[in-house]
Amino acid sequence: AGVGKSSLVHLLCQNQVLGNPSWTVGCSVDVRIHDYKEGTPEEKTYYIELWDVGGSVGSATSVKSTRAVFYNLLNGIILVHDLTNKKSSQNLYRWSLEALNRDVAPTGVLVTNGDYDREQFADNQIPLLVIGTKLDQIPETKRNEVLSRTAFLAEDFNAEEINLDCTNPRYLAAGSSNAVKLSRFFDKVIEKRYFLRDGNQVCHFS
């Protein structure tokens, strides 16, 4: 909760800063237009739904079972964490396992590195992207230390990493490294949804 998911989704879908973000209850949905394989002969426009799932933890299993409804038939996961909050970053391990339906713990989200087993993600076929928010709130003197620590997250999840300030669209400016990473992620999401890979063959279902 409070890491900036709604602000991020608004920026991704509307290319605008969300002026007055409020707490997300349940789930809200927005749509992004994405050009698959932009600039190639295979380019095609798709609509991508982004489901902004509320981050309330709660102590009852009913909270998790309610969230599980939003994880059905997902084709990609964006794991969002607050760069100014180390606990937020650690919690991504539990959130990811919950979304992938591999969280066997009865309740709670917090985990320590000692509880984490990288093998749980070895055979994952769902595209993952790790996004750190509130980059602007980290003092310059501590920025390298924080980004070095969070870089291990992306490595653990076998995912690319984007760090940004959701109040500044320039972090996702066209042609930037962040924009390229984001485009690659959405290409993978589309392939997960619409394509079946069999060896070197890619079969399209329409």
Automatic annotation (TrEMBL):
Domain of life: Eukaryota
Keyword field contains GTP-binding: yes
GO MF entry, a single one: GTP binding
Keyword field: GTP-binding, Nucleotide-binding
Stored SMART domains: RAB
Family annotation (Gene3D superfamilies): P-loop containing nucleotide triphosphate hydrolases
InterPro entries per record: P-loop_NTPase
Pfam hit, one: Roc
UniProt function note: Required for KRAS signaling regulation and modulation of cell proliferation. Regulator of KRAS prenylation, and probably prenylation of other small GTPases. Required for lymphocyte development and function. Not required for myeloid cell development.
Family, similarity comment: Belongs to the small GTPase superfamily. Rab family.
Name of the protein described by the UniProt record: Rab-like protein 3
Lineage: Eukaryota, Metazoa, Chordata, Craniata, Vertebrata
Gene: Rabl3
